């Protein structure tokens, strides 16, 4: 009986007969030889069916196979330097599981809306599979970095009684007799966890009810949110750049084949090594003025501004010390200049915009109470958050990484909708 294998592991079976469960990605024929492009989720391999070397039944079965038909294919694994995987299978047997008819996604070009309507099938294509593999590697690397650097994984709630940042872009639901909202950030809860565990991180879904249709926005996305007790703004920036460098180099090391499959310029990723350049908000404003942007001090940056700044660098760049008026209520003012806060946005190169936002948090209970009043936030609702300052307050900092924007940047994608298996956008809740 042939050994059962997956395509990813065929290098362990050179010269052996194996059986693989697979789908037909494509096929072509050259007279008395059929070439089956096989995929099984773990990789791709070509199966070669030679008419003179197989039974008539195997030959006819091979001829009947259509795109995305499923089968068990048996054959001998051999090295083939010309193939993408480095191996081929000389087919000796075929067991058809299901013959597919009129598969909706063909090698021809399809419109984006059509592909999104068939996202459940579009995921099977080589590029989309590669993106999902890279996404999985990014997730693995994120967890490996924090797990080996003294952080504890903590899961904040998805249903919350209020906003994390005092905004109104929330999804409302009923929690029995009370109002509740889908979380837009786990940060406030992670600050509480940091006071118990020192260094923590969360990794979970977040939701923004912003009616945005840009290529950078999703309604539902995943966030990584570390919080660190006894950590100031400068120390947090060092963690951020080391973290991003680690994640990017892990992808370069472990997903080179997938990066090549989607046509990514790997040399640009190899250059992502800490430290990263830094500029202040003031310096960014001055630079933008030289580039023809009419943006006043005190206004937040949009995508064109971030792209113009990022074009100066081949690494992510930190923009630090934003005006307090355009940042969240919990960010600590610069002691030497209270009109700006100890914060930073990390802007990815190549026009991918902000991938990290972080700051040192206010640890002074009196100042935080003043911020509540300025932002017209309910002291009753946030009393538990105030308790963190009343009982053993310490300097602490944290940041949030948007997973999907990071995947888009590392993969070099035009739109964030390809970075998540089933994207939720302004006009899409199906499939």
Automatic annotation (TrEMBL):
<dbReference type="InterPro" id="IPR002312">
    <property type="entry name" value="Asp/Asn-tRNA-synth_IIb"/>
</dbReference>
<protein>
    <recommendedName>
        <fullName>Asparagine--tRNA ligase</fullName>
        <ecNumber>6.1.1.22</ecNumber>
    </recommendedName>
</protein>
<dbReference type="GO" id="GO:0016740">
    <property type="term" value="F:transferase activity"/>
</dbReference>
<dbReference type="GO" id="GO:0003676">
    <property type="term" value="F:nucleic acid binding"/>
</dbReference>
<keyword id="KW-0547">Nucleotide-binding</keyword>
<dbReference type="InterPro" id="IPR004364">
    <property type="entry name" value="Aa-tRNA-synt_II"/>
</dbReference>
<feature type="domain" description="Aminoacyl-transfer RNA synthetases class-II family profile">
    <location>
        <begin position="134"/>
        <end position="431"/>
    </location>
</feature>
<dbReference type="InterPro" id="IPR012340">
    <property type="entry name" value="NA-bd_OB-fold"/>
</dbReference>
<dbReference type="GO" id="GO:0140096">
    <property type="term" value="F:catalytic activity, acting on a protein"/>
</dbReference>
<keyword id="KW-0436">Ligase</keyword>
<dbReference type="GO" id="GO:0005524">
    <property type="term" value="F:ATP binding"/>
</dbReference>
<dbReference type="Pfam" id="PF01336">
    <property type="entry name" value="tRNA_anti-codon"/>
</dbReference>
<dbReference type="InterPro" id="IPR004365">
    <property type="entry name" value="NA-bd_OB_tRNA"/>
</dbReference>
<keyword id="KW-0648">Protein biosynthesis</keyword>
<keyword id="KW-0067">ATP-binding</keyword>
<comment type="subunit">
    <text>Homodimer.</text>
</comment>
<dbReference type="GO" id="GO:0006421">
    <property type="term" value="P:asparaginyl-tRNA aminoacylation"/>
</dbReference>
<dbReference type="GO" id="GO:0005737">
    <property type="term" value="C:cytoplasm"/>
</dbReference>
<dbReference type="InterPro" id="IPR006195">
    <property type="entry name" value="aa-tRNA-synth_II"/>
</dbReference>
<dbReference type="InterPro" id="IPR004522">
    <property type="entry name" value="Asn-tRNA-ligase"/>
</dbReference>
<keyword id="KW-0030">Aminoacyl-tRNA synthetase</keyword>
<keyword id="KW-0963">Cytoplasm</keyword>
<dbReference type="Pfam" id="PF00152">
    <property type="entry name" value="tRNA-synt_2"/>
</dbReference>
<dbReference type="InterPro" id="IPR045864">
    <property type="entry name" value="aa-tRNA-synth_II/BPL/LPL"/>
</dbReference>
<dbReference type="GO" id="GO:0004816">
    <property type="term" value="F:asparagine-tRNA ligase activity"/>
</dbReference>
<comment type="similarity">
    <text>Belongs to the class-II aminoacyl-tRNA synthetase family.</text>
</comment>
């Amino acid at each position: 009986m042939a050994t059962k294998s997956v395509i990813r592991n065929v290098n362990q079976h050179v010269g052996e007969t194996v059986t693989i469960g697979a789908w037909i990605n494509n096929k072509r024929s050259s007279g008395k030889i059929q070439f089956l492009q096989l995929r099984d989720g773990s990789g791709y391999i070509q199966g070669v069916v030679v008419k003179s070397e197989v039974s008539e039944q195997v030959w006819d079965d091979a001829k009947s196979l259509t795109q995305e038909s499923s089968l068990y294919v048996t054959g001998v694994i051999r090295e083939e330097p010309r193939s993408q995987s480095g191996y081929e299978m000389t087919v000796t047997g075929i067991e058809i599981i299901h013959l597919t008819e009129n598969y909706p996604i063909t090698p021809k070009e399809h419109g984006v809306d059509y592909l999104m309507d068939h996202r459940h099938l579009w995921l099977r294509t080589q590029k989309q599979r590669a993106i999902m593999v890279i996404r999985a590697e990014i997730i693995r690397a994120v967890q490996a970095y924090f797990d080996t650097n003294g952080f504890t994984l903590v899961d904040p709630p998805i249903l919350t009684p209020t906003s994390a940042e005092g905004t109104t872009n929330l999804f409302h639901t009923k929690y029995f007799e009370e109002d509740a909202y889908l979380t837009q950030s786990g940060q406030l809860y992670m600050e509480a966890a940091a006071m118990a565990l020192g260094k923590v991180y969360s990794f979970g879904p977040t939701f923004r009810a912003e009616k945005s249709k840009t290529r950078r926005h999703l309604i539902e996305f995943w966030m990584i949110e570390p919080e660190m007790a006894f950590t100031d703004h400068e120390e947090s920036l060092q963690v951020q750049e080391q973290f991003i460098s680690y994640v990017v180099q892990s992808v370069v090391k472990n997903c080179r084949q997938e990066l090549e499959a989607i046509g990514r310029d790997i040399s640009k990723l190899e250059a992502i090594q800490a430290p990263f350049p830094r500029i202040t908000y003031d310096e960014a404003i001055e630079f933008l003025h030289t580039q023809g942007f009419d943006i006043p001090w005190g206004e937040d940056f949009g995508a064109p501004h971030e792209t113009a700044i990022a074009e100066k660098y081949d690494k992510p760049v930190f923009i630090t010390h934003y005006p307090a008026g355009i940042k969240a209520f919990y960010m600590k003012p610069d002691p030497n200049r209270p009109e700006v806060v100890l914060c930073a946005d990390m802007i990815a190169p190549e026009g991918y915009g902000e991938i990290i936002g972080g700051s040192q948090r206010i640890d002074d209970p009196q100042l935080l109470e003043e911020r509540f009043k300025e932002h017209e936030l309910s002291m009753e609702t946030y009393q538990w958050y105030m308790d963190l300052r009343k009982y053993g307050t310490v300097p602490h900092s944290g940041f949030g990484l948007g997973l999907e924007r990071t995947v888009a940047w590392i993969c070099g994608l035009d739109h964030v909708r390809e970075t998540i298996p089933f994207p939720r956008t302004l006009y899409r809740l199906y499939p």
